[in-house]
Write a structure and sequence with these properties.
The strands form 3 sheets. Strands 2-6-4-5-7 form a 5-stranded mixed β-sheet. A 5-stranded mixed barrel has the order 14-17-16-15-18, surrounded by 4 helices. It has helices spanning 23-51, 101-115, 130-134, 188-202, 220-234, 289-299, 352-366, 396-404, 414-424, 446-472, 476-479; strands at 9-10, 18-20, 57-58, 61-69, 88-93, 119-127, 181-182, 212-216, 240-245, 249-251, 269-274, 280-284, 306-309, 312-315, 325-334, 377-385, 407-411, 428-436. By secondary structure, it is α/β, with parallel strands linked by helices. 32% of the residues lie in helices and 20% in strands. It folds into 2 domains: 9-197, AMP nucleoside phosphorylase, N-terminal domain (amp nucleosidase, domain 1), CATH 3.30.1730.10; 204-483, 3-Layer(aba) Sandwich (Rossmann fold). β16, α8 and β17 form a beta-alpha-beta unit. α1 packs across α2 (101-115) and α5 (220-234) packs across α10 (446-472).
Length: 493
């Protein structure tokens, strides 16, 4: 491939485009190209930061996947991914093919099967920013601006926010000047940005994240998750292989010790791992829609198969009791953080597969069935707001809107997580537990909360885990339904 590269730019030598009819071989070549580019940039970076600029500039490119088809292919109409919508050329840049190997093999294999044309793998025209090239090399670190006597951008490519965006998933991306359309939902720069952010916010490396993600808004759930993980590690038939805690500490012995963390990250995260990433990740996002958006913005690039919110909420009906569950089937979005990306007039539908998994898990854990489930669980609209102390303001207006929407519960995260799941095509759901009833004189007070948490947290978390384990057994084509796909959708999930 010929690059529009000024004479001063030095690039890796001999990187060429190749065609493949084997998904595994295609990903092997992606890994080889990417590794060569990283080695080139890291070597130059180490030399330049030690000895100073040498009059040259250094650039390497992300590899890309490209497919060209000249005919409309007949595919299984039930399948929401794995095929392009019409004849043309489609491409996407790729980063960390080692991390995404299973995903890439699966998606490429579907393309080969559905279109019967080879896949092209080669260098793209998108430079790799030097920051992302050295981020996983512990022997290198990017100096702060001003700490060296030259500007990095004079020697290397640096991150460019103009090309790190959500235009594809937001439906705003335009084809390239030559007509090439996008093959996947995220460009390589966008993925690299989020991988770096994930490590920062969660204090665990991206490779530990599992395909099924539970979000909570209380640290109480973490102790229960660790206790469950230890039980699973003690059971040789559980299928779980390790438990990773904040700080990337890996536990394989059910009786092993987890060292204390000197400084907790903003979003403590824990991973109960299973082969092929089919375990469960728990993220304590804390309180508020901003944290919920931040977490899901970045976890989305890992292409999880489902994420579910299992937090606490305010019950809005007098008929509810503390400890009751709320299964969200609609959302009143007053969180505001996603309004620019996903207008509030867009409905966020309930997903049958997730709803059934959650209701079945409630039945199993609570040992109830049929109409009796209504004694501990209500299904209805969940409202999410951006003001934790909304009760202290004039609340006639908010209460009127809550009543008109038929909302049965209120929190600050669930609608954000569901809306971002919709936006990023990640199956989502919400099962909340009522911890207070502010409209009916039952406020969340320290003593009440303590007793409540002790009796309810374990059961609530177990329901979320059981739901995820049932979803794990579903074929991907049933879990990733067409409800989350637009008219002209990318072929990759």
């Amino acid at each position: 491939m010929t690059h529009d590269t000024p004479p001063l730019w030095q690039t890796p030598f001999g990187q060429a485009k190749q065609s493949f009819t084997s998904a595994n071989e295609a990903v092997d070549y992606l890994e080889a190209l990417y590794a060569e580019s990283l080695a080139f940039l890291r070597s130059a970076f180490s030399r330049i930061t030690e000895s100073g600029p040498d009059g040259q500039k250094y650039r390497a490119f992300y590899p890309e996947i490209r497919i060209t088809t000249t005919r409309f292919s007949t595919v299984d109409s039930r399948l929401s991914f794995g095929h392009v919508p019409e004849p043309g050329t489609y491409a996407i840049t790729v980063t960390r093919p080692d991390l995404f190997r299973n995903y890439l093999v699966q998606q490429i294999d579907l393309l080969l099967s559905n279109h019967s044309v080879p896949i092209e793998i080669g260098p793209s025209n998108t430079p790799i920013p030097v920051h992302f090239a050295v981020v996983n090399d512990s022997s290198l670190s990017v100096p702060q601006e001003g700490s060296i006597d030259f500007s990095l951008r004079d020697v290397f490519d640096v991150p460019d926010l103009r090309t790190t965006n959500d235009d594809i998933v937001n439906g705003e991306a335009k084809p390239a000047p030559d007509g090439t359309q996008y093959l996947g939902p995220f460009t390589a720069q966008r993925v690299d940005y989020s991988l770096a952010r994930l490590a920062h916010y969660t204090a665990t490396e991206p490779e530990h994240f599992q395909n099924f993600v539970l979000f909570t808004n209380y640290q109480f759930y973490v102790a229960e998750f660790e206790a469950y993980a230890r039980k699973m590690l003690a059971d040789p038939n559980s299928g779980y292989t390790s438990f990773v805690s904040t700080g990337n500490h890996v536990l394989t012995d059910s009786n092993g010790e987890i060292p204390p963390v000197g400084k907790m990250p903003q979003m403590p995260t824990y991973h109960l791992k299973r082969e092929n990433g089919d375990g469960i990740t728990l993220v304590n996002i804390g309180v508020g829609p901003s944290n919920a958006k931040t977490a899901t913005d970045h976890i989305a690039v890992l292409r999880p198969h489902a994420w579910i919110m299992v937090g606490h909420c305010a019950g809005l009906r007098n008929s509810q009791s503390l400890g009751d569950f709320v299964l969200a089937h609609a959302y009143l979005r007053e969180d505001k953080v996603l309004d620019d990306d996903l207008p509030v007039w867009i409905p966020i539908p309930a997903l049958a597969e997730i709803q059934i998994a959650l209701e079945s898990a409630v039945e199993s854990v609570a040992n109830l069935s049929g109409y009796d489930v209504k004694s501990v669980m209500r299904t209805g609209t969940v409202a999410s707001v951006d003001n934790r102390n909304w009760e202290l303001r004039e609340h006639t207006g908010p209460v009127k809107r809550l009543s008109q929407s038929r909302a049965i519960a209120l929190d600050m995260e669930s609608a954000t997580i569901a809306a971002n799941g919709y936006r990023f095509r990640v199956p989502y759901g919400t099962l909340l537990c009522i911890s207070d009833k502010p409209l009916h004189g039952e406020l969340k007070l320290p003593g009440m909360a303590s007793d409540f948490y002790k009796t309810q947290v374990a059961r609530h978390l177990l329901i979320g885990i059981r739901a995820m384990e049932s979803l794990r057994d579903k074929p991907l084509e049933r879990l990733h339904s067409r409800k989350l796909r637009s008219f002209d959708e990318t072929a990759f999930l």
